[in-house]
Amino acid sequence: MAISKQDVQNQLRKVQDPELHRDLVSLNRVANVAWCDGVASVSVLWSASAGGTQQQIRDAIEQAVRELGDEVKQVSVDFVGQEKPAQGQGGQPAGDDSPQAQARASNPLPNVKHIIAVGAGKGGVGKSTVSVNLAVGLARTGAKVGLLDGDIYGPSVPTMLGLDDIKPQGSGNMIFPFQVHGIKTMTIGKLVEADKPLIWRGPMAHGAFRQLATQTEWGELDYLIIDLPPGTGDVPLTLAQLLPLTGAVVVCTPQKVAQDDARRAVKMFQQLGIHVLGVVENMSYFIGDDGKEYDIFGRGGAKRMAEQLAVPFLGMVPINMRLRENCDTGDPTANFVGDDKLAEELTHVSQKLAGQVQVLSMSGELDAPSISVH
Ligand SMILES: Nc1ncnc2c1ncn2[C@@H]1O[C@H](COP(=O)(O)OP(=O)(O)OP(=O)(O)O)[C@@H](O)[C@H]1O
Protein backbone atom coordinates (compact mmCIF):
# COMPACT_ATOMS: atom_id res chain seq x y z
CA MET A 1 0.00 0.00 0.00
CA ALA A 2 1.27 3.49 -0.85
CA ILE A 3 2.87 5.41 1.98
CA SER A 4 1.10 8.58 3.12
CA LYS A 5 2.23 11.66 5.00
CA GLN A 6 0.23 10.32 7.97
CA ASP A 7 2.28 7.10 7.94
CA VAL A 8 5.48 9.15 8.19
CA GLN A 9 3.97 11.21 11.00
CA ASN A 10 2.97 8.02 12.86
CA GLN A 11 6.52 6.66 12.69
CA LEU A 12 7.72 9.76 14.56
CA ARG A 13 5.87 8.47 17.61
CA LYS A 14 8.69 5.91 17.83
CA VAL A 15 11.35 8.63 18.18
CA GLN A 16 11.97 9.57 21.78
CA ASP A 17 13.63 12.59 23.33
CA PRO A 18 16.47 10.82 25.21
CA GLU A 19 16.07 12.94 28.31
CA LEU A 20 12.34 13.37 28.60
CA HIS A 21 11.62 9.78 27.45
CA ARG A 22 8.64 10.94 25.46
CA ASP A 23 8.13 10.87 21.73
CA LEU A 24 8.51 13.90 19.43
CA VAL A 25 4.83 13.94 18.47
CA SER A 26 3.48 14.02 22.00
CA LEU A 27 6.10 16.65 22.89
CA ASN A 28 4.77 18.81 20.01
CA ARG A 29 8.25 18.98 18.57
CA VAL A 30 7.29 18.04 15.01
CA ALA A 31 7.02 21.31 13.09
CA ASN A 32 6.32 19.86 9.68
CA VAL A 33 6.09 16.56 7.84
CA ALA A 34 5.97 16.25 4.09
CA TRP A 35 5.92 13.21 1.83
CA CYS A 36 6.41 13.46 -1.90
CA ASP A 37 7.79 11.02 -4.48
CA GLY A 38 9.61 8.84 -1.96
CA VAL A 39 11.17 11.74 -0.08
CA ALA A 40 10.15 12.26 3.54
CA SER A 41 11.00 15.66 5.00
CA VAL A 42 10.67 16.25 8.70
CA SER A 43 11.22 19.56 10.50
CA VAL A 44 11.82 19.27 14.23
CA LEU A 45 11.64 22.10 16.71
CA TRP A 46 14.93 22.49 18.50
CA SER A 47 15.54 24.49 21.63
CA ALA A 48 17.97 24.64 24.52
CA SER A 49 15.77 22.18 26.45
CA ALA A 50 15.89 19.46 23.79
CA GLY A 51 17.58 16.26 24.90
CA GLY A 52 20.30 14.43 22.92
CA THR A 53 22.20 15.73 19.92
CA GLN A 54 20.68 16.67 16.58
CA GLN A 55 22.58 13.78 15.01
CA GLN A 56 20.98 11.30 17.45
CA ILE A 57 17.51 12.59 16.67
CA ARG A 58 18.22 12.68 12.93
CA ASP A 59 19.42 9.05 12.94
CA ALA A 60 16.44 7.91 15.00
CA ILE A 61 13.99 9.63 12.65
CA GLU A 62 15.68 8.18 9.58
CA GLN A 63 15.57 4.69 11.06
CA ALA A 64 11.90 4.99 12.06
CA VAL A 65 10.78 6.34 8.67
CA ARG A 66 12.80 3.77 6.71
CA GLU A 67 10.91 1.03 8.57
CA LEU A 68 8.02 1.93 6.24
CA GLY A 69 9.80 0.05 3.44
CA ASP A 70 11.66 0.44 0.17
CA GLU A 71 9.34 3.13 -1.12
CA VAL A 72 11.27 5.52 1.17
CA LYS A 73 14.14 6.78 -0.98
CA GLN A 74 15.31 9.62 1.20
CA VAL A 75 14.68 11.00 4.65
CA SER A 76 15.56 14.63 5.15
CA VAL A 77 15.55 16.05 8.67
CA ASP A 78 16.09 19.64 9.62
CA PHE A 79 15.94 21.50 12.86
CA VAL A 80 14.20 24.77 13.33
CA GLY A 81 14.72 27.02 16.32
CA GLN A 82 11.97 28.11 18.65
CA GLU A 83 13.92 31.13 19.73
CA LYS A 84 12.42 34.45 18.78
CA PRO A 85 14.63 36.38 16.38
CA ALA A 86 16.77 38.79 18.35
CA GLN A 87 19.97 40.38 17.08
CA GLY A 88 20.09 38.36 13.90
CA GLN A 89 16.58 39.17 12.73
CA GLY A 90 17.08 42.75 13.58
CA GLY A 91 16.35 43.96 17.07
CA GLN A 92 13.57 45.86 18.67
CA PRO A 93 9.84 45.75 18.08
CA ALA A 94 8.61 48.39 15.70
CA GLY A 95 5.85 50.72 16.70
CA ASP A 96 2.26 50.24 15.57
CA ASP A 97 2.87 52.58 12.66
CA SER A 98 5.18 50.11 10.90
CA PRO A 99 4.13 49.27 7.31
CA GLN A 100 3.23 45.72 8.38
CA ALA A 101 1.07 46.91 11.27
CA GLN A 102 -0.89 49.04 8.78
CA ALA A 103 -1.23 46.10 6.41
CA ARG A 104 -2.43 43.78 9.17
CA ALA A 105 -5.12 46.26 10.14
CA SER A 106 -6.56 46.52 6.62
CA ASN A 107 -5.76 43.11 5.15
CA PRO A 108 -7.27 43.08 1.64
CA LEU A 109 -6.67 39.31 1.18
CA PRO A 110 -8.20 37.70 4.28
CA ASN A 111 -8.66 34.35 2.52
CA VAL A 112 -4.95 33.87 1.99
CA LYS A 113 -3.24 32.17 4.93
CA HIS A 114 0.39 32.93 4.14
CA ILE A 115 1.78 35.62 1.87
CA ILE A 116 5.46 35.13 1.08
CA ALA A 117 7.60 37.56 -0.91
CA VAL A 118 10.59 36.33 -2.89
CA GLY A 119 13.25 38.97 -3.37
CA ALA A 120 16.88 39.34 -4.38
CA GLY A 121 19.33 42.16 -4.16
CA LYS A 122 20.62 41.50 -7.64
CA GLY A 123 18.92 40.89 -10.97
CA GLY A 124 19.39 37.63 -12.80
CA VAL A 125 20.18 35.46 -9.78
CA GLY A 126 17.12 33.28 -10.40
CA LYS A 127 14.50 34.92 -8.24
CA SER A 128 11.66 34.21 -10.69
CA THR A 129 12.93 30.68 -11.24
CA VAL A 130 12.93 30.04 -7.50
CA SER A 131 9.49 31.71 -7.06
CA VAL A 132 7.90 29.56 -9.74
CA ASN A 133 9.46 26.36 -8.41
CA LEU A 134 8.59 27.15 -4.81
CA ALA A 135 4.98 27.69 -5.85
CA VAL A 136 4.83 24.43 -7.79
CA GLY A 137 6.78 22.59 -5.05
CA LEU A 138 4.36 23.76 -2.34
CA ALA A 139 1.37 22.83 -4.52
CA ARG A 140 2.81 19.33 -4.89
CA THR A 141 2.51 18.87 -1.12
CA GLY A 142 -1.26 19.38 -1.49
CA ALA A 143 -1.37 23.08 -0.58
CA LYS A 144 -3.49 25.66 -2.43
CA VAL A 145 -0.97 28.04 -3.94
CA GLY A 146 -1.04 31.31 -5.85
CA LEU A 147 1.87 33.05 -7.58
CA LEU A 148 1.76 36.79 -8.13
CA ASP A 149 4.31 38.12 -10.60
CA GLY A 150 5.19 41.29 -8.76
CA ASP A 151 8.07 41.98 -11.12
CA ILE A 152 6.07 44.64 -12.92
CA TYR A 153 9.13 45.93 -14.77
CA GLY A 154 10.20 42.60 -16.26
CA PRO A 155 7.57 39.90 -15.78
CA SER A 156 8.97 36.40 -16.38
CA VAL A 157 5.96 34.36 -15.29
CA PRO A 158 4.19 34.28 -18.71
CA THR A 159 7.19 32.44 -20.17
CA MET A 160 8.10 30.36 -17.14
CA LEU A 161 4.54 29.05 -16.72
CA GLY A 162 3.75 28.79 -20.44
CA LEU A 163 0.87 31.29 -20.47
CA ASP A 164 1.36 32.36 -24.10
CA ASP A 165 -1.87 30.99 -25.52
CA ILE A 166 -4.16 31.75 -22.56
CA LYS A 167 -6.27 34.91 -22.55
CA PRO A 168 -7.07 36.77 -19.33
CA GLN A 169 -10.72 36.72 -18.23
CA GLY A 170 -12.57 38.65 -15.58
CA SER A 171 -15.85 39.83 -14.18
CA GLY A 172 -16.58 43.39 -13.12
CA ASN A 173 -13.49 44.81 -11.43
CA MET A 174 -11.97 41.43 -10.78
CA ILE A 175 -9.73 39.33 -12.98
CA PHE A 176 -9.54 35.55 -12.76
CA PRO A 177 -6.10 34.06 -12.15
CA PHE A 178 -4.65 31.63 -14.69
CA GLN A 179 -4.69 28.04 -13.44
CA VAL A 180 -1.66 26.07 -14.56
CA HIS A 181 0.72 23.47 -13.07
CA GLY A 182 -1.53 23.10 -10.00
CA ILE A 183 -1.31 26.78 -9.04
CA LYS A 184 -3.19 30.04 -9.64
CA THR A 185 -1.19 32.91 -11.07
CA MET A 186 -1.43 36.52 -12.22
CA THR A 187 1.07 38.67 -14.07
CA ILE A 188 1.09 42.09 -15.66
CA GLY A 189 2.79 40.43 -18.60
CA LYS A 190 -0.61 39.12 -19.74
CA LEU A 191 -2.44 42.42 -19.22
CA VAL A 192 -0.30 44.73 -21.34
CA GLU A 193 0.91 44.41 -24.90
CA ALA A 194 3.87 42.10 -25.26
CA ASP A 195 7.06 44.01 -26.16
CA LYS A 196 5.75 47.24 -24.63
CA PRO A 197 8.34 48.68 -22.26
CA LEU A 198 7.01 48.80 -18.71
CA ILE A 199 8.17 52.12 -17.37
CA TRP A 200 6.53 52.95 -14.06
CA ARG A 201 7.13 56.00 -11.89
CA GLY A 202 6.76 55.45 -8.12
CA PRO A 203 2.98 56.08 -7.82
CA MET A 204 2.24 54.15 -11.02
CA ALA A 205 4.28 51.19 -9.80
CA HIS A 206 2.36 51.35 -6.52
CA GLY A 207 -0.99 51.38 -8.35
CA ALA A 208 -0.08 48.59 -10.75
CA PHE A 209 1.11 46.31 -7.98
CA ARG A 210 -1.91 47.08 -5.78
CA GLN A 211 -4.33 46.29 -8.61
CA LEU A 212 -2.60 43.03 -9.50
CA ALA A 213 -2.60 41.88 -5.89
CA THR A 214 -6.09 42.92 -4.83
CA GLN A 215 -8.14 42.73 -8.03
CA THR A 216 -7.25 39.13 -8.77
CA GLU A 217 -9.90 36.64 -7.66
CA TRP A 218 -7.51 34.43 -5.66
CA GLY A 219 -10.15 32.60 -3.61
CA GLU A 220 -8.85 30.64 -0.62
CA LEU A 221 -5.12 30.00 -0.64
CA ASP A 222 -2.65 28.42 1.76
CA TYR A 223 0.24 30.34 0.20
CA LEU A 224 0.53 33.33 -2.09
CA ILE A 225 4.09 33.61 -3.40
CA ILE A 226 5.05 37.05 -4.69
CA ASP A 227 7.96 37.36 -7.12
CA LEU A 228 9.35 40.86 -6.47
CA PRO A 229 11.43 42.99 -8.84
CA PRO A 230 15.17 42.84 -8.08
CA GLY A 231 16.63 45.38 -5.69
CA THR A 232 15.16 47.52 -2.98
CA GLY A 233 12.81 49.85 -4.89
CA ASP A 234 9.18 50.98 -4.72
CA VAL A 235 7.41 47.64 -4.95
CA PRO A 236 8.65 46.09 -1.68
CA LEU A 237 7.53 49.20 0.19
CA THR A 238 4.08 49.12 -1.43
CA LEU A 239 3.87 45.42 -0.68
CA ALA A 240 4.79 45.91 2.98
CA GLN A 241 2.14 48.61 3.39
CA LEU A 242 -0.54 46.69 1.52
CA LEU A 243 -0.35 43.02 2.50
CA PRO A 244 0.40 41.33 5.83
CA LEU A 245 3.25 38.99 5.04
CA THR A 246 4.21 35.79 6.77
CA GLY A 247 7.72 36.52 5.57
CA ALA A 248 10.21 36.80 2.76
CA VAL A 249 12.65 34.52 0.98
CA VAL A 250 15.90 35.97 -0.36
CA VAL A 251 17.51 34.34 -3.40
CA CYS A 252 21.25 34.62 -3.81
CA THR A 253 23.99 33.02 -5.86
CA PRO A 254 27.17 32.02 -4.01
CA GLN A 255 29.46 34.81 -5.26
CA LYS A 256 30.54 37.63 -2.99
CA VAL A 257 29.00 40.35 -5.23
CA ALA A 258 25.61 38.65 -5.10
CA GLN A 259 25.88 38.22 -1.33
CA ASP A 260 26.52 41.92 -0.79
CA ASP A 261 23.27 42.79 -2.55
CA ALA A 262 21.38 39.97 -0.84
CA ARG A 263 22.45 41.32 2.55
CA ARG A 264 20.81 44.60 1.57
CA ALA A 265 17.64 42.74 0.64
CA VAL A 266 17.60 40.93 4.00
CA LYS A 267 18.04 44.23 5.85
CA MET A 268 15.35 45.87 3.73
CA PHE A 269 12.79 43.21 4.65
CA GLN A 270 13.74 43.48 8.30
CA GLN A 271 13.38 47.27 8.22
CA LEU A 272 9.94 46.87 6.73
CA GLY A 273 9.01 44.60 9.64
CA ILE A 274 8.97 41.44 7.49
CA HIS A 275 10.38 38.18 8.86
CA VAL A 276 13.07 36.63 6.72
CA LEU A 277 11.98 33.01 6.32
CA GLY A 278 15.24 32.05 4.71
CA VAL A 279 17.85 32.29 1.99
CA VAL A 280 17.97 30.05 -1.09
CA GLU A 281 21.33 29.55 -2.77
CA ASN A 282 20.66 29.33 -6.50
CA MET A 283 23.21 28.19 -9.12
CA SER A 284 24.97 26.63 -6.19
CA TYR A 285 26.92 24.01 -8.09
CA PHE A 286 26.90 22.20 -11.43
CA ILE A 287 26.73 18.48 -12.10
CA GLY A 288 28.72 17.50 -15.19
CA ASP A 289 28.03 14.65 -17.59
CA ASP A 290 30.69 12.75 -15.66
CA GLY A 291 28.41 12.92 -12.59
CA LYS A 292 30.91 15.09 -10.73
CA GLU A 293 29.77 18.22 -8.90
CA TYR A 294 31.60 21.45 -9.82
CA ASP A 295 31.45 24.48 -7.53
CA ILE A 296 31.59 27.06 -10.32
CA PHE A 297 30.50 30.04 -8.25
CA GLY A 298 31.78 28.76 -4.87
CA ARG A 299 29.12 26.59 -3.31
CA GLY A 300 28.09 27.56 0.21
CA GLY A 301 28.65 31.33 -0.10
CA ALA A 302 24.97 32.19 0.38
CA LYS A 303 24.69 29.60 3.14
CA ARG A 304 27.50 31.28 5.07
CA MET A 305 25.87 34.65 4.52
CA ALA A 306 22.61 33.32 5.99
CA GLU A 307 24.51 32.00 9.00
CA GLN A 308 26.24 35.34 9.53
CA LEU A 309 22.90 37.17 9.36
CA ALA A 310 21.31 34.51 11.62
CA VAL A 311 18.50 33.85 9.17
CA PRO A 312 17.46 30.32 8.13
CA PHE A 313 19.02 28.63 5.11
CA LEU A 314 16.45 26.87 2.94
CA GLY A 315 18.73 24.96 0.59
CA MET A 316 20.70 24.90 -2.65
CA VAL A 317 19.52 24.70 -6.25
CA PRO A 318 22.13 23.46 -8.76
CA ILE A 319 22.85 25.02 -12.14
CA ASN A 320 20.91 22.71 -14.35
CA MET A 321 20.27 22.69 -18.07
CA ARG A 322 16.91 20.95 -17.71
CA LEU A 323 15.78 23.64 -15.26
CA ARG A 324 16.68 26.39 -17.74
CA GLU A 325 14.97 24.55 -20.60
CA ASN A 326 11.83 23.96 -18.54
CA CYS A 327 11.79 27.67 -17.63
CA ASP A 328 12.01 28.60 -21.30
CA THR A 329 9.29 26.16 -22.35
CA GLY A 330 7.02 27.00 -19.43
CA ASP A 331 6.99 23.56 -17.85
CA PRO A 332 8.15 23.79 -14.19
CA THR A 333 6.31 20.58 -13.26
CA ALA A 334 8.93 18.71 -15.27
CA ASN A 335 11.60 19.87 -12.79
CA PHE A 336 10.02 17.71 -10.11
CA VAL A 337 9.66 14.59 -12.19
CA GLY A 338 12.54 12.16 -12.13
CA ASP A 339 14.79 10.77 -9.54
CA ASP A 340 17.61 13.26 -9.70
CA LYS A 341 19.33 15.92 -7.67
CA LEU A 342 17.31 18.80 -9.18
CA ALA A 343 13.95 17.35 -8.13
CA GLU A 344 15.41 16.44 -4.74
CA GLU A 345 16.81 19.92 -4.04
CA LEU A 346 13.69 21.77 -5.24
CA THR A 347 11.45 19.51 -3.14
CA HIS A 348 13.71 20.06 -0.15
CA VAL A 349 13.64 23.86 -0.49
CA SER A 350 9.83 23.95 -0.77
CA GLN A 351 9.36 21.67 2.21
CA LYS A 352 11.87 23.58 4.31
CA LEU A 353 9.99 26.79 3.55
CA ALA A 354 6.71 25.17 4.59
CA GLY A 355 8.43 24.09 7.81
CA GLN A 356 9.63 27.63 8.56
CA VAL A 357 6.13 28.98 8.00
CA GLN A 358 4.70 26.41 10.35
CA VAL A 359 7.26 27.17 13.05
CA LEU A 360 6.53 30.87 12.80
CA SER A 361 2.79 30.23 13.01
CA MET A 362 3.22 27.98 16.06
CA SER A 363 5.48 30.48 17.79
CA GLY A 364 2.68 33.07 17.76
CA GLU A 365 5.07 35.59 16.25
CA LEU A 366 2.83 36.35 13.31
CA ASP A 367 0.40 38.04 15.68
CA ALA A 368 3.14 39.80 17.60
CA PRO A 369 4.45 43.26 16.76
CA SER A 370 6.84 43.15 13.85
CA ILE A 371 10.53 43.87 14.16
CA SER A 372 12.74 46.39 12.50
CA VAL A 373 16.34 47.42 12.26
CA HIS A 374 17.30 50.98 13.12
N1 LIG B 1 19.70 27.01 -11.23
C1 LIG B 1 19.62 27.36 -12.50
N2 LIG B 1 20.10 26.56 -13.48
C2 LIG B 1 20.02 26.92 -14.80
N3 LIG B 1 19.46 28.06 -15.22
C3 LIG B 1 18.98 28.90 -14.28
C4 LIG B 1 19.00 28.59 -12.89
N4 LIG B 1 18.40 29.62 -12.21
C5 LIG B 1 18.02 30.51 -13.14
N5 LIG B 1 18.36 30.08 -14.38
C6 LIG B 1 18.13 30.79 -15.63
O1 LIG B 1 18.70 32.09 -15.52
C7 LIG B 1 17.87 33.06 -16.15
C8 LIG B 1 17.51 34.16 -15.16
O2 LIG B 1 16.68 33.61 -14.16
P1 LIG B 1 15.48 34.44 -13.51
O3 LIG B 1 14.68 35.14 -14.55
O4 LIG B 1 14.78 33.52 -12.59
O5 LIG B 1 16.30 35.51 -12.67
P2 LIG B 1 15.75 36.76 -11.86
O6 LIG B 1 16.62 36.90 -10.68
O7 LIG B 1 14.29 36.62 -11.61
O8 LIG B 1 15.99 37.91 -12.89
P3 LIG B 1 15.36 39.41 -12.92
O9 LIG B 1 14.48 39.58 -11.75
O10 LIG B 1 16.56 40.28 -12.92
O11 LIG B 1 14.60 39.43 -14.21
C9 LIG B 1 16.68 32.30 -16.70
O12 LIG B 1 16.91 32.00 -18.05
C10 LIG B 1 16.65 31.00 -15.91
O13 LIG B 1 16.12 29.94 -16.65
What does this protein look like?
- The structure is a single chain.
- With 374 residues, this protein is an alpha/beta fold.
- The protein has 2 domains: 77 residues, GMP Synthetase, Chain A, domain 3 (2-Layer Sandwich), CATH 3.30.300.130; 265 residues, P-loop containing nucleotide triphosphate hydrolases (Rossmann fold, 3-Layer(aba) Sandwich).
- Helices cover 33% and strands 24% of the residues.
- Strands 6, 7, 10, 11, 12, 13, 14, 15 and 16 form a 9-stranded mixed β-sheet that branches.
- Helix 3 crosses helix 7, helix 6 crosses helix 7 and helix 8 runs parallel beside helix 9.
- The protein is globular, with a radius of gyration of 20 Å.
- The relative contact order is 0.17.
- Adenosine-5'-triphosphate (ATP) binds next to helix 4, strand 14, strand 16 and helix 10.
- Adenosine-5'-triphosphate binds next to helix 4, strand 14, strand 16 and helix 10.
- In the C-terminal section; belongs to the Mrp/NBP35 ATP-binding proteins family.
- InterPro entries: FSCA_dom_sf, MIP18-like, Mrp-like_CS, Mrp/NBP35_ATP-bd, NUBPL-like, P-loop_NTPase, YlxH/NBP35.
CATH architecture of the largest domain: 3-Layer(aba) Sandwich
The CATH topology of the largest domain is given as Rossmann fold
**Proportion of helical residues:** 25-40%
- Low-pLDDT stretches are 82-95, 368-374
Summed up, the helix count is 11
Regarding quaternary structure, what we see is single chain
What structural category do the secondary elements indicate?
alpha/beta
Ions, cofactors and other bound molecules: adenosine-5'-triphosphate
* Domain tally: 2
Shape: globular
GO molecular function: ATP binding
InterPro entries: FSCA_dom_sf, MIP18-like, Mrp-like_CS, Mrp/NBP35_ATP-bd, NUBPL-like, P-loop_NTPase, YlxH/NBP35
Organism: Natronomicrosphaera hydrolytica
Subunit structure: Homodimer.
